[in-house]
Design goal:
This protein has six helices and eight strands. The protein has about 210 residues and is an alpha/beta fold. Among the domains are: about 70 residues, no CATH class; about 80 residues, no CATH class. The strands form three sheets. It has a four-stranded parallel β-sheet, with helices on one face. Helix 3 links the parallel strand 2 and strand 3.
Length: about 210
């Protein structure tokens, strides 16, 4: 709590007057540990909408309800199959959120790419590095094309708010696939000592280390 209070004060003291909010999984333990008095509490979930909103309301009896991360897909770790979620299933949960009067931030609405070493990782009893693609089975794919979720979400949102009376963008024109023949190879580990000296274990001045 002290760290969160420090962050809130750091923002306020620097002139940030916009609404601050915390974002945690919608269960009592996470909400209690990750929230602050006077700061909007929001939840992260992709299903079990009624139960999640109930937990949010129990923790914060007044104020708006918001799902700050409405998970509509998932990220892929090395060695796994690409994760997908049925568009109709995700759209039904979006409809439940909007019907309850909740605000929602779709995660992810637009897929992306983890360039260089920005892919990140998880840890669940073992290190789980993520792949370069962050397509996430999003409403707009990694290359910007509208997918099944885009159309399903548009229909749901139109039941609750006006949507532009415009045609949906067509998928972008793709170049034909080009086969690339690889005639040589080099194993990674035997060549590591040739590439560069080992990095210093001491953090450099101004770097972030934790």
């Amino acid at each position: 709590a002290a760290y969160l209070e420090h962050l809130a004060e750091a923002l306020r003291s620097r002139g940030i007057g916009e609404l601050l909010f915390t974002c945690d999984q919608a269960n009592p333990e996470h909400l209690a540990a990750g929230s602050l008095p006077g700061v909007l509490t929001t939840g992260t979930f992709g299903s079990k909408v009624a139960a999640s909103l109930e937990q949010l309301r129990a923790h914060q009896p007044e104020g708006p309800l918001m799902c700050a991360e409405f998970w509509i897909g998932w990220f892929d770790h090395w060695g796994e199959e690409h994760h997908t979620r049925d568009a109709a299933d995700a759209a039904a949960d979006l409809d439940r959120l909007l019907s309850a009067g909740a605000s929602v931030n779709i995660y992810m609405f637009h897929g992306g790419t983890n360039f260089a070493f920005t892919n990140g990782a998880n840890h669940d009893h073992a290190y789980q590095p993520m792949v370069t693609s962050y397509d996430y089975d999003a409403a707009l794919s990694e290359n910007g094309d509208p997918g099944p979720k885009y159309h399903a979400f548009r229909e749901v949102i139109a039941r609750h708010a006006p949507v532009p009376d415009e045609p949906v963008p067509a998928p972008s024109v793709k170049l034909p696939p080009t086969p690339v023949a690889l005639g040589e190879r080099a194993p990674l580990l035997p060549h590591v000592p040739r590439c560069a000296p080992p990095p210093s274990r001491r953090p450099s001045k101004g770097s972030l280390a934790w």
